[in-house]
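re: ur question from yesterday

yeah so i grabbed the chain u mentioned. its 507 aa long if i counted rite. heres the sequnce exactly as i have it in my notes:
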Amino acid sequence: MVSRHHVGRAWRLLAILILGFASGLPLALTGQAMQAWLTVDGVDLATIGFFGLVGIPYTFKFLWAPLMDRFELPWLGRRRGWLALTQFALAGLLWWMATLSPSATPQLFALAAVLVAFLSASQDVVVDAYRTDLLPEEERGLGASVHVFAYRLAMILSGGIALIWAGQWHSWPRVYGVMATILLVCGVLSLVLLPRVASASKPLDSDPRRELLGFAAMIAGVVVGYALARQALVLAGLNPNDANKWIQLLFVLVEIAAALPLAYWLAKRTGFETLNRSLTSYFAQNGAAAFLLLIILYKLGDAFAGSLTTPFLIKGMGFLQEEVGIANKVIGIWLTILGAFVGGLIMTRLSLYRALLVFGVLQLVSNFGFYVLALLGKGAWGAVQVPAFDWGFVSLHTPAALDWLLLTVIAGENITGGMGTVAFVALLMALCNQRFSATHYALLSAFAAVGRIYVSPLSGVLSESIGWPAFFLFSLVIAAPGVFMVWWMRHALAALGRPPVPVGADD
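ran it thru and got these structure tokens back, copy pasting raw so excuse formatting
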């Protein structure tokens, strides 16, 4: 007879499975899948690079996370209300994106993508909090594994199978409509199936009205700083719509450089206590700035080379969307999971410092594979035939050829990337668990996304200016400072000890 305890555990793990899937689905829809849509719609490489900035909300989610922790939506209970709201809103926004054309209405399309990224980052905040609140300590390891599996499964769907569907249906809007329907179903399941969690036993010790005022002032600072910087460049005689992509990149960098300090200054002046305390306490730690720099640099070369992988393979090398979907997004993600497991096993015998150093070097070397592919081109090593299949939800009507060099490069990049991610997340866990609060983890994970988001505009302009082979050689140069930082900080890293290693953790 099944006990109530086992039924409760199964219910909790089912909830984690649903939420892990819902959390992983939107990421590619504002990343690699969106890049494929932009590419086949005829958008130029530099503009595709600028579209990488739609992921900016992922780097700032710690700013509004305290508000979602403090305030509860009525009737739906703690966490569950925010989960359902973000999932229904994501479904609506994806339906809207499906009605837009990237080439005909690029600004409107970019706005929709930014809003999708904002809601996706917000959903991630609540999913992480819900998982922590729901699972008892003895179930957290199993719950984390279920979450990672569901998250990666969703990435295979939205980042790999979506490319196969788009190639077969000849319609990216239809693909995004299907993804919107899936998220709508996730929202319904969140309302119906998710167990409730208890409300916070005591409120945070700062004034909620001051928090809201501080958050509003921070947003106002972003808008005002952006507008002032843009106007200053215009008065200097520059045109934001100049055909020269380097001028467009200058506008982006100056606008960001002006908006962020003004936003922080206004937040501090108006009493956004959660943000102020978080930043003050973090930078009071020994070596805080150096660790922050390491976090930004460690995956920078990997992010730089991978920022335009989909346009490179489709537009630069001439691979079909179905080929890229199978090789890079389906096989590639499973290889990332394999790399994470291998990295986790190796880290049982290596210190954190040695793992970061070895895996960092392997990440750097793997970028050389893309240089070889760009130099030799499609078909240099022949191809392997993939037989036709029909799995119901996805099918391949005729046998397809998969390029051996493409598969080799994808295998090397994803396996080493998975290994590097395991060591990197272990570093974040060590910092968070031994020195910083949970709020700092949100801060550190946000800075970890900086490379993935902010190198994209530079990647687009640079690849268009110097060509693909030189671009991937440059990615090796970009990766070197992260490896050097690991060596330079070897004594500080050794002092962190050997924390538990998460296998297959989120990028």
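noticed a couple things. The chain has a mean pLDDT of 80. also The CA atoms of residues 356 and 423 lie 6 Å apart.
anyway ttyl
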